[in-house]
Amino acid sequence: MGAPSLLLCLSAALPLLLHADECQDIRMLTEAQPAKQPFAINCTSPLLTAAARATWYRHPSEAPVSTDPQARVHQEQSWILFLPVAWGDSGTYRCLINDTDVCHQVHVNLTVFGKYGCRRNSQRNLPDGHEQILHVGGDDSLSCHLNFPKSCVLDLNSVKWYKDCKEIKEKRFKNWEKRLLVNNVSAEDRGSYVCKANLTHAGRQFTVSRRIAVNVTEIVGYAGRFPKITHPINNTIEAQLGSSLTVNCTITDSRDNTNLRCWRVNSTLVDDYYPEPKRVREGNETCVVFKEYAVYTVSITFLEVKMEDYGFPFTCHAGFMSAAHFLLRPPAPDGRVYLMGGLLAVVGAAALVLCASRRFRIDVALWYRSAFVSTSTTAAVANVIDENIKLCRRLIIILAPEPLGFDLLKNMSEEQIALYNALIQDGMKAILIEVEKVRSYASMPVSIQYLRQKHGSVQWSADAAAGAPCAKARFWKKVRYRMPPKRFPPPSTASSGAHAL
User: Fold this and answer.
1) How many CA atoms lie within 13 A of 194 on its CB side?
2) What is the pLDDT of residue 470?
3) CB within 8 A of 212, min separation 6: which ones?
4) How far is residue 115's CA from residue 130's CA, in Å, rounded to a whole number?
């Protein structure tokens, strides 16, 4: 079982060995680290693609550095990690980067030296020191270069700063993550600084430190090309009340600069200004390094925009000369939204009424009839009587004996409407039938007198009731005479054609 595994490892490493001589050198680094200190180097480059793969070697060995996270010296992604540095780690390390079509190499010369003392001026010009500059008369900052992979957890609350072996506690100095903020820089701030912090990896605790040799200089000709803030541009940003928002500050600056990049409100750091924890906070700084400059990005995040945030300047600072701000404002109302909302409300109401009318139309009609029933039905009855009378072609009025009286005509709506049609509209002819001989029409209504004068009358005769056939009785002949002639239906088309034949 061991032989196949060995062959597999050799076959995987063989392409790297074959192409090692063809790789292009892109960087040569020199590092000096004290013994017993955690240390890490990253060999990635912004020019490489996401598909690039890095492999670390220690010269002259052609075997890759171990990837076991429990090993003191091992590789994690593109990092080589020393936990901690030992005396025997001095030497040359090579990072081979295989990209899609190219191969690059990074060489690192590492020198390990003994732990330095803490006598005054003993730290000057030691090989692990980083040189940084503070500018007199303004606010500036120092950076603690503690760069490790994500597997190493750096306790930012444990960061402490020392000057000439004494912990810094003056109010002009303030710790902020991996930076030391210095207000009102003076010539006395020149000296040797050390930053220390606690680091945890795979449950193991370490103390890591970095030395910084600090010089001071006057602000002469500083208003040059860098730093330059490209966003924000002193503009206004719309944000909905209660929404979340993230704004990036993009800064172009020279490589290896020491400028402080941060967000402030009223000259106060954002994280210190807001008492409510984490509602408004500054994000971590990211950096993309190019050949002659670097682009930094620092974000400010609002987990919930509140009314107190509107109209307030949030300022991004880069160093002590460059600054840019933005203001928050609520979004302007969109008239189209209100118009669309109104139209939708009208359409919805109409649809609701239509559905309700279809579903409850019978109940509504019955309720309306019971709630608004008319107390008088004389307009409706009169219309029905009038329409039915207009269908008649003759009006027959039987004159009863005088004791019955003619007041009946004054109270019956049917007779009144019929007389109106016969007298006023002249829509039908009247036939007066006298049951008994009327001696005088003077006591009769004027309408009856008029009809008697216009159409005459027919008197009931005894032969009509003596058993003679109705059609041959004199009385019925007079009645039939006054009746309209009988109507026959017009001949159909088929019968007309038959006659023609």
Assistant:
1) 21
2) 61
3) 129, 130, 131, 132, 142, 143, 144, 192, 193, 194, 195
4) 16
The residue type found at 31 is E
Tokens of 16: 């790297």
The pLDDT tens digits for 336-349 are 767 888 888 888 88
Q: Write the DSSP assignment of 437-488 as a string of letters.
A: --S-STTS-HHHHHHHHHH-EEE--GGGGTT--GGGSHHHHHHHHHSPPPP-
Q: Does residue 55 register a pLDDT over 70?
A: yes
The pair of three-digit structure tokens given for residue 20, joined into one six-digit string: 């090692």
Q: What is the CA radius of gyration of the chain?
A: 57
CB 280 within 8 A of CB 301: yes
Q: Which helix (H) or strand (E) holds 79?
A: strand 79-82
DSSP conformation letters of 168-215: ---TTEEEETTEEEESS--GGG-EEEEEEEEEEETTEEEEEEEEEEEE
Query: What interhelical angle do 378-390 and 413-420 show, nearest 10?
Result: 50
Residue 395 CA to residue 427 CA, distance in Å, equals: 10
- Going by the DSSP 8-state scheme, the letter that residue 70 receives in this structure is T
pLDDT tens digits, residue range 303-324?
999 888 888 889 998 887 788 8
Chain centroid to Cα 242, Å, comes to 12
Tell me the average pLDDT across 377-381. Answer: 62
**DSSP letter for each residue of 386-405:** HHHHHT-SEEEEEE--GGG-
Q: How far is CA 100 from CA 21, 49, 288, 364, 486, in A?
A: 17, 8, 21, 79, 113
Of 31, 177, 285, 414, the catalytic one is: 414
Long-range own/partner contacts, residues 401-409 (CB < 8 A, 24 or more apart): 401/435, 401/436, 402/443, 406/443, 406/444, 406/445, 406/448, 409/445
Which pLDDT tens digit goes with each residue over 102-149?
788 888 999 998 766 565 544 445 555 678 888 887 778 888 888 898
The C-alpha atoms of residue 19 and residue 60 are separated, in whole angstroms, by: 16
Find residue 261's DSSP bridge partners: 318
Q: Among 23-32, 57-66, 334-343, which stretch is predicted with the lowest mean pLDDT?
A: 334-343
Is 62 among the residues known to form the active site? no
Which residue shows structure tokens 């005054």? 120
